[in-house]
Specification:
Layout: H1 11-16, H2 21-33, H3 35-42, E1 56-59, E2 66-69, E3 74-75, H4 77-81, H5 83-89, E4 93-98, E5 107-110, H6 111-127, E6 135-139, H7 144-156, E7 159-162, H8 169-179, E8 183-187, E9 190-192, E10 195-197, H9 199-207, E11 215-219, E12 233-235, H10 236-239, E13 252-253, E14 257-263, E15 271-276, H11 278-291, E16 299-302, H12 309-321, E17 325-329, H13 340-348, E18 352-355, H14 357-364, H15 369-372, E19 381-385, H16 391-401, E20 408-411, E21 445-448, E22 454-455, E23 459-465, E24 475-476, H17 480-488, E25 495-503, E26 509-514, E27 518-521, E28 524-527, H18 528-536, E29 541-551, E30 555-564, H19 572-585, E31 594-597, H20 611-619, H21 635-642
Parallel strand pairs: 4-17, 6-7, 6-8, 7-14, 8-11, 11-12, 16-17, 16-18, 18-19, 19-20, 30-31
Antiparallel strand pairs: 1-2, 3-13, 4-5, 9-10, 14-15, 15-24, 21-22, 21-23, 23-25, 25-26, 27-28, 29-30
Helix pairs in contact: 2-3, 6-7, 8-9, 11-12, 14-16
Bound molecules: ligand 6R9.
Ligand 6R9 is lined by residues 263, 308-310, 385-388, 410-415, 436, 497-499, 511, 513-514, 520, 523, 525.
Binding site for ATP: 386-388, 410-415, 499, 514, 525
Modified residues (N6-acetyllysine): 608
Cofactor: Mg(2+)
């Protein structure tokens, strides 16, 4: 690694950060050498109703598979995020809400106010018959009520399942049905970039495929017209009228479920990733404090959507558990123009910004002027998440956005991991653009070759985690077997991440991307299987194969090979129709960028589609297609190459 690619820890960070280089070494060493003591000590950062005496209790082996953390402890997650701050900082700002429309006033909630709003929402849910263990689906825009709803569930022990507001009615219905929730919380409409999203109408459409749905709570956000169905639909503001603003937090076991979040895998439909209460909150809180060197007085902005795990952990649970001021933004980084994010930074004096490489690339493309026209002197730290960050975007973030002052914290993690896993600590870790750097305390990453042999020193391989950590997911909702099958069978005894990585001679990790059939579009996970299933639902489609392709802004785009039923002719209209079809079935993020009408797909003699070849063609890398002699019909490949969609 060339020297100019190393950004040493700035002296003021080394001197003043919570953890310096020696501190990291010591903490990391202790976490692996004596995990029991280390984690029980860390558990003190939470308020327990009953303090745990056991830390991790787990086995990744088939015969005795189980994962439990702090299992004898009792706590309430919302009380940790709200009540315990009241005495000390009840009057300080907990939540700042920045509206889509920049001319509108932001809304601010102190800890005392947020506590009251959450309690009120919790009482409304109780009034609708929601009790501990029930699943509540939340399909909301980025408005404060979304935060109230999430924390209200945590308060009464209901399990929330937040569904991204950009998902279609079909996708929403599948998620409602899968977790058996009878109640959906939504809003009349959402707003993003000046456009309206018909959330309530989408819930109405979803209800047709979700027979178990009996109650819809509707928050009035825009005042747009909606049809209310008398027996089923309830206006939140009506139900909340006169409702008490105190509500006792439900005592929860540390291993009681906190939430389900659906995410894409390499096979089948999205799976409901289950997180529990104690370990998850501990991990959210610890990683937020360590990786971003959180200090009282910071204004923290995680620019994710609460429909993704990043929004769960780093808009809500982590920062609120730490008593931080967290900013929630309703809109888009590029609207009304590409200076919006930096204007928000200035308006609220944001100290720490956490966003995704795809947003940075989109903004970088618009030129530096949108950035340099703003002040940004409040910023002290910048973070990124969601996909590998290309060094060019990293440097732009560092040099232009951060004026060379702010360390870049590239955090590698997954829905399944609950919080950041591999990331620099600003006072401890010299940075290399494009590397997520080093494992956080308690995290034991390994690189394996395809046979499962552990690779030492500088190497590239499959990234696995060799021991459990508190924030680890605990199961796939409704399918206990799928959890073990998906994550613990490829390399027995280890958690398989599905990512590939390289470790350099300094021990730095460089995530190279997914090694499975998951593609990462603008930091959002899409299973190729999901897009394929949506395509083949179309009456003219016989078969489909979907792969990722490089995309300047999105990181990866979606390239779909489609074989039509005989008698159907390819046309541009049909191509448009298929793209629209996938948007409708799953949502806009799943819309293919390219549709390649293919008379045949390359298959092995046993009928397996050779995705390796399809990937190469989509990437335009046709000179090295490898061995095609095992194909049932090698001529198919020539036809695909000749008709590649560019
Ligand atoms: C938090 C989140 C997880 C997948 C993960 C990996 C990719 C996330 C990354 C990164 C390189 C980073 N990923 N952060 N790759 N560097 N800093 O994104 O969760 O939506 O479940 O996606 O995203 O491929 O496996 P999730």
């Amino acid at each position: 690694m060339a020297d100019q690619d190393l950004y040493p820890v700035p002296p003021e960070w080394a001197a003043h950060a919570r953890v310096d280089s020696a501190g990291y070494d010591q903490m990391y060493g202790r976490s692996l050498a004596d995990p029991g003591t280390f984690w029980l000590d860390q558990a003190k950062r939470l308020d327990w109703i009953k303090r745990p005496e056991i830390a991790g209790d787990w086995s990744f082996d088939k015969s005795d598979f189980h994962i439990r953390w702090f299992a004898d402890g009792k706590l309430n997650v919302s009380a940790n995020c709200l009540d315990r701050h009241l005495a000390k900082r009840g009057g300080e700002t907990a939540l700042i809400w920045e509206p889509d429309e920049p001319s509108e006033e932001p809304r601010r909630f102190t800890y005392a106010e947020l506590h009251a709003e959450v309690c009120r929402f919790a009482n409304v849910l109780k009034g609708q018959g929601v009790v501990k263990g029930n699943r509540v689906t939340i399909y909301m825009p980025m408005i404060p009520e979304a935060a109230f709803a999430v924390l209200a569930c945590a308060r009464i022990g209901a399990i929330h399942s937040v569904v991204f507001g950009g998902f279609s009615p079909e996708a929403l219905a599948g998620r409602i049905e899968d977790c058996g929730s009878t109640i959906v919380i939504t809003a009349d409409e959402g707003r993003r970039g000046g456009k309206r999203v018909p959330l309530k109408a989408n819930v109405d459409a979803a209800a047709a495929h979700a027979p178990g749905l009996t109650t819809v709570i509707v928050v009035k956000a825009t005042g747009g017209a909606v049809t209310m169905q008398a027996e089923r639909d309830v206006w939140y503001h009506e139900a909340a009228e006169g409702v008490a603003t105190t509500c006792p937090p439900e005592p929860m076991g540390a291993e009681d479920p906190l939430f389900i979040l659906y995410t894409s895998g390499s096979t089948g439909q999205p799976k409901g990733v289950l997180h529990t209460s104690g370990g998850y909150l501990l991990w959210a809180s610890l990683t937020h404090e360590l990786t971003f060197d959180y200090r009282p007085g910071d204004v923290w902005w995680c620019a994710a959507d609460i429909g993704w795990v990043t929004g769960h952990t780093y808009i809500l649970y982590g920062p609120l558990a730490n008593g931080a001021t967290t900013l929630m933004f309703e809109g888009l980084p590029t609207w009304p123009d590409a200076s919006r994010m930096w204007q928000i930074v200035d308006r609220h004096k944001v100290t720490t910004l956490y966003t995704a490489p795809t947003a940075l690339r989109a903004l970088m493309k618009e030129g530096d002027g949108f950035v340099t026209a703003t002040d940004r002197s409040s910023l002290k730290l910048l973070g990124t998440v969601g996909e590998p960050i290309n060094p060019e975007a990293w440097r732009w973030y560092h040099d232009v956005v951060g004026q060379g002052r702010c360390p870049i914290i590239d955090t590698w993690w997954q829905t399944e991991t609950g919080g950041a896993m591999i990331a620099p600590l600003p006072g401890a870790t010299a940075l290399k653009p494009g590397s997520a750097t080093m494992p956080l305390p308690g995290i034991d990453p390994q690189l394996l070759d395809p046979e499962g042999v552990v690779l030492n020193g500088a190497a590239s391989g499959n990234l696995v985690i060799a021991r459990s950590w508190p924030g680890q997911m605990r199961g796939v909702w409704g399918d206990s077997d799928r959890f073990f099958q998906t994550y613990f069978t490829t390399y027995p005894g280890k958690y398989t991440t599905g990512d590939g990585a390289r470790r350099d001679e300094d021990g730095y990790y460089w995530i190279t991307g997914r090694v499975d059939d998951v593609i990462n579009v603008s930091g959002h996970r899409m299973g190729t299987a999901e897009v394929e299933s949506a395509l083949v639902l179309h009456p003219h489609v016989a078969e489909a194969a979907v792969v990722g392709m490089p995309h300047d802004i999105k990181g990866q785009g979606i390239y779909a090979y489609v074989t039509l039923n005989s008698g159907q002719d390819p046309s541009d209209d049909l191509r448009k129709e298929l793209v629209g079809w996938v948007r409708k079935e799953i949502g806009p993020i799943a819309a293919p960028d390219k549709v390649h009408f293919a008379p045949g797909l390359p298959k092995t003699r046993s009928g397996k589609i050779m995705r390796r070849i399809l990937r190469k063609i989509a990437e335009g890398d046709v000179s090295s297609l490898g061995d095609t002699s095992t194909l049932a019909d090698p001529a198919v490949v020539d036809d695909l190459v000749a008709n590649r969609v560019v």
